[in-house]
Amino acid sequence: MCGIVAYVGSKQAYPIIIKGLKRLEYRGYDSAGIALINGGLNVYKKKGKVSELESSLTETDLKSTIGIGHTRWATHGEPNDVNAHPHYSTKENLAIIHNGIIENYASLKEELLRKGHKFLSATDSEVFIHLIEDIQDNLNCSLEEAVRISMTQVVGAYAIVVMDEKAPDQLIAARKGSPLVVGVGKGEYFLASDATPIIEYTNEVIYVNDFDIVTIRNGELSIKSIDAQEKTPYIETLEMELESIEKGGFEHFMLKEIFEQPRSIRDCLRGRVFAETGHLVLGGLREYMNKVISTDRIIILGCGTSWHAGLVAEYILEEFTRIPVEVEYASEFRYRNPVIREGDVVIVISQSGETADSLAALELAKSKGALIFGVCNVVGSSIPRATHAGAYTHAGPEIGVASTKAFTAQVTVLTLIALVIANKKGTISEARLMQLLFELETIPEKVEKALGLNEQIKYLAAEFKDAKNFLYLGRGYNFPVALEGALKLKEISYIHAEGYPAAEMKHGPIALIDQEMPVVFIATKDSTYEKVISNIQEVKARRGKVIAIVTEGDEKIKTMADFVIEVPATDEALMPLVAVIPLQLLSYHIAVMRGCNVDQPRNLAKSVTVE
Ligand code: G6P
User: In this structure, are residues 466 and 496 in contact, taking their beta carbons and an 8 Å threshold?
Assistant: First the structure.
């Protein structure tokens, strides 16, 4: 969590940094700050959103061609002005921004306090700059050297940028475990947690590696390793378009991203599925195919919505490949001494590619000899860089904190993985494979059609916006969809919601049902349809309000449910891609009607880089 941006060059730094912080606000938004060299090293910071910092500075002279900025998601120390970044050193000649967590901050702080350092905040981050200051003073070395030595003493995760009052043309940055990208412009440099603050100015970027130190001085950039070895910077060209990170006329990023799904699913299929010729290509898998088809089991790891995509994948993989699959929360897996064997295949799913628990679980599985495959959205992020192979979801930047298009893209890629393996293993017939490939190609249109339900769902949202609880029920492929629908609602509207396998309702949630309880059934026509109908009747018998997501033309459920939403028919295995759309829209409209901040829900962050 937390977003960092820095600039040094010939332009004014302040507008670049403020704009960049707004782009990174999805990473945290409880306070923000900026440091500039404008007649001294000055730090300006404020509790609240970046816009609140901006309005507090309208009267201030902010001229500076160098600056660092930060938007925070609090870990150590409550969100307030003092705990906001940047933080000064004791002499206030140095300032730091930090994304990550310093695990040994308490012992470092104790030592530094003994040496006379003065701390103002309750954060772990402030310790870092005092440590750097202390090293620089004791060894009388350069700031770069002090940063390098400090990295040998700090335990934890960090992306930092440090500024020195005496050096208005210099930024020193370093990374371990938290993302850091350098934008290389003409005589100017940008540093940020991801590329979104940068692409407006340059598409030449360097992804900084763990334990590397970046020094930008007098228009020149150099990179050194923690053991002071000079490294050759590897400049990559980004393909991201500026429009992809703007709202494009939509009221919220979330709504834009929901409506982008026909396109994002199409992009995900492009160059991979050729139904006409029966071709299915997934470059990332090719090299490891023999290992994958001979594995005894696949373990899927993820958090939040990515974990839900993993559950859908479990059903698809087991059905078509006949390989046993386990799906685990990365945060549980890594701490429970799991059995991991050399032949295991581990699929790590992550939109951001930065989730700390997913990354740590990946490293654990890798250290035990498993083959690691990544399904990620953000190109060049930490998880895809740590895997043996992978497939990107190509959904484009997802900015709304609640994941929507990343979910459908993940499910699409995971479906392709299952079909590629099944085809190679011979566990799917030619005819069934062709049927699924043709059906996959129709999914973008079907999603488009489901988006046409928007007005109807708005009406439904108005009916239920004041509900205190919601229950989401589904069976088979639609069970993970129920979980995802419930998660979307609670994330952005703060209504308590539970997702359950419909049959499990009898073992607990049925006790909650009365005339106040909306129950959303994902009841499309599939192999569990008749059973779900019985579950609907059980709810109706207890006077619950049934909202049913059904297959177009379903007349039976219409006679039982209070509200029916008809989605286009598709193959049972692909239904999650279509059935999730009305649930995303329902949570969106309820949240808007309740006056919630849809794109930046309270307490959440898009990229959870703390454990
Ligand atoms: C956070 C986000 C969720 C996301 C989860 C996993 O909780 O708010 O939307 O599903 O992290 O993130 P990842 O980037 O690993 O998919």
Answer: no
Cβ 1 under 6 angstroms from ligand 1 = no
The DSSP bridge partners found for residue 565 are 549
- The conformation of residue 27, written as its DSSP 8-state character, comes to G
Query: Is 202 strand, coil or helix?
Result: coil
pLDDT tens-digit readout, 116-150: 999 999 999 999 999 999 999 999 999 999 999 99
**What are residue 279's DSSP bridge partners?**
274
Question: What per-residue string of b and e applies to 510-521 under the rule 16 or more CB within 10 Å gives b?
Answer: beebeeebbbbb
Distances (CA, A) of 86 to 15, 31, 163: 17, 11, 10
**Which amino acid does the sequence have at 121?**
S
CB atoms within 10 A of CB 425: 16
Residue 6: what residue type?
A
Model confidence over 490-537: pLDDT tens digits? 999 999 999 999 888 888 888 888 888 899 999 999 999 999 999 999
pLDDT digits (tens, 9 = 90+) for 331-351: 999 899 999 999 999 999 999
User: Token pair for residue 95?
Assistant: 């300032």
Ligand 1 atom nearest the C-alpha of 306 is 16
d(CA 117, CA 134): 8
pLDDT band at 444; cut points 50, 70, 90 = very high
In single-letter form, the type of residue at position 367 comes to S
What tokens appear for 326 in the block?
A: 């386990």
| The token pair that represents 611 in the structure block | 């454990």
Residue identifier of the C-alpha nearest atom 15 of ligand 1: 350
Q: Please name the residue whose Cα sits nearest to atom 7 of ligand 1.
A: 304
Whether 2 is catalytic is yes
C-alpha distances in angstroms, 65 versus 38, 59, 164?
9, 19, 13
Give whole-number Cα distances, 330 to 348, 349, 401, in Å: 9, 10, 19
377 lines ligand 1 (CB under 6 A): no
**500 vs 120: CA distance, rounded Å:** 47
Confirm if 323 and 351 have CB atoms less than 8 A apart. Answer: no
Q: Centre a 10 Å sphere on the Cβ of residue 100 and count the other Cβ atoms it contains.
A: 26
Mean pLDDT of 31-54: 95
Give the integer Cα–Cα distance in Å for 146 and 193: 22
